[in-house]
Amino acid sequence: MPQSVEKILDHGPLFREPEYQEMFARKKACDGAASIDATALQSEYTRGWDYREKNFAREALVINPAKACQPLGAVFAAAGFEKTMSFVHGSQGCAAYFRSHLSRHFKEPCTAVSSSMTEDAAVFGGLNNMIDGLANCYSLYQPKMIAVSTTCMAEVIGDDLHGFIGNAKAKGSVPEDFDVPFAHTPSFVGSHIDGYDNAIRGILEHFWKDNPASAGSSETINIVPGFDGFCVGNNRELGRMLGLMGVSYTFIGDAADQFDTPSDGEYRMYDGGTTIDELKAAKGAKATVALQHWNSRKTLEYAASVGQETASFNYPLGVKATDDLLMKVSALSGKAIPEALRLERGRLVDAMADSQAYLHGKRYAIFGDPDFVKAMARFILETGGEPVHCLSTNGGKEWAEDMQKLFDGSPFGKDCKAYAQKDLWHLRSLLFTEPVDFLIGNSHGKYLERDTGTPLIRLTFPIFDRHHHHRFPVIGYQGGLRVLTTILDKLFDKLDAETNIAGETDISFDLTR
Ligand code: SF4
C-alpha cells in the first residue's frame, strides 16, 4: 500500500493511488453499477422540463432535505445558557450526530450527553435510563442546569419527560431543586428550528412558571436570537449595536462564547451563556423580541401569555431589515438610534451603490431556513438582484405567502417564486431548467454547484467545508457589508474565470473592476 510512516498521504491523493483505483474498479464490477454512458444518459434526462414535472409531482419521498431534526435545535438552544448540559433522552447515535453536526460547523467541541436508550428501553420505556443518566451527568459534568430533549425513539414509545424527571429527582439522581427544564422534540414533525423553539419555551416555562416577577417591571428587553449558525459573530454584533443605543437587554440563549472558546491552555466545557439569574429576571422584561419569527413562534406565544409585548423579525440582514429592528428597539426602550449607527447605515448604502453596476439584474437561487431565505431574498432585492428560486424545506404555506408579498413589493421580484417544503433535488431541477447566476445556501449546496455549474455562496448553517465564517456577523449594517463583500468576491471570481482565456476572452480580464 502507498501509505507509510515516511509518506503519509491525505485521502485526496491516497485514493488516487493505483491500489485504490483497482479496488474501486473491482467494487464497481461487483456492485453491478451502470456503465458511464448509461449514467450520463440518465443524468442528461434528469436535467429537462419533463423530469422537472415528474420531480415536482413526487409526494411520498424526500431527497436531500435542507433541514435537520428537532433535537439538534434543542441541543443548540441549550448551548446558550450558563454551565448547561444538554441531555438527549434517546439513542446515543443521535446525540453523536447532533454534536458532530455542530462541531463540524463551529470547529469547536459541542457538549451533550444521552440517556443511551437501546432495545430494552425501546420496549419497556426509558425511565431507568433517565434515572441513571441524570445522576451520571450531574456528578460527572457538574452543570448548573441540565436541559432535556427527546429523540424519535423516546417519542415513539411516548416517554413522559415531566414524570420521568420527577421520578429521577425522587430517586436522588439530582437534588429536588436542581434545574432540569425539558422539551419534547419529536423528530418526525417539524425541524431543528421547531426543536429550538420548543427548548427555549421549555426553559422559559421552567423559570417563569412560579416566578412572581411581573412583565414590564424592568426596562430590559429580551432578545431571542433563534437557531443561528452565525451566532458567534451575530450576537456580539447585536450586543454592540444595543450597547451603542444604551439599551438594557438579555439574550434568551447566547451560544457565542460556548462555540468560540479561546486556545489559552484551559479547556472550557462550558463558557458564557445566559445565567440562571438573568433568566429568572427576564420574566420582568417589558418585551421579548425574536430575531427569527419562524424559529420562535411558541416562545413568543408564551412571552405574550405572561404579559410581555412581543415582536419578531426575519433575521435582520440588510438595510431595511436592520432599520426595522433598530426602530422597534428604539420605540420599545425609548432610546434614540445614535449617530454612529446612522453613519454605519450610510456606509452600507454607499458600498451597495459603488457595486451597483455589477449587482443589478443578477439572478439567484436561495435555500435554507425560512427566516434566512427571506432575509437573503430581501437583501438581494435591495441590491437590484432577483431572488428567482427561494426554497425552504422547513418553510410552510404561510411562509410562501409571506415571501410572495416580499416579491410583489419590488420591481425585481416579478419572476421570483418561493418553494415551501421542497428539497435540494427539487432545487436541482430548478437550476437546470431555469438557470441563475448564483446559489446562496450552506455546504450541502456544493453538490448542486458541481452538478449544475452554479457558483455557491455559503452564508448559512451548516458550513462544514469552509472555516470561520460564523465568527463574523451577517446581521446589522456591518453584517450587511460582509454579506455584500462575500457575494461580490464570488461574482468577481466568476467574472475573472470567464475572461481569462489568453487571446480569446482576456480582453476583459481587467485589473480594475
Ligand atoms: S431523526 Fe430521529 S433517529 Fe435520526 S437523528 Fe433525529 S432523533 Fe435521531
TrEMBL record:
Nitrogenase molybdenum-iron protein beta chain N-terminal domain segment(s): 1-55
Function: This molybdenum-iron protein is part of the nitrogenase complex that catalyzes the key enzymatic reactions in nitrogen fixation.
Keywords: ATP-binding, Iron, Iron-sulfur, Metal-binding, Nitrogen fixation, Nucleotide-binding, Oxidoreductase
Protein name stated in the entry: Nitrogenase molybdenum-iron protein beta chain
Cofactor: [8Fe-7S] cluster
InterPro entries to which the protein is assigned, alphabetical: ChlB/BchB/BchZ, Nase/OxRdtase_comp1, Nase_comp1_CS, Nase_Mo-Fe_CF_bsu, Nase_Mo-Fe_CF_bsu_N
Domain of life of the organism encoding this protein: Bacteria
An MF annotation (GO) of this entry: iron-sulfur cluster binding
Free-text remark on how the cofactor is bound: Binds 1 [8Fe-7S] cluster per heterodimer.
Gene field: nifK
EC number(s) stated in the UniProt entry for this protein: 1.18.6.1
A Pfam family this chain is assigned to: DUF3364
PANTHER family for this protein: LIGHT-INDEPENDENT PROTOCHLOROPHYLLIDE REDUCTASE SUBUNIT B
SUPFAM superfamilies named in the record: Helical backbone' metal receptor (SSF53807)
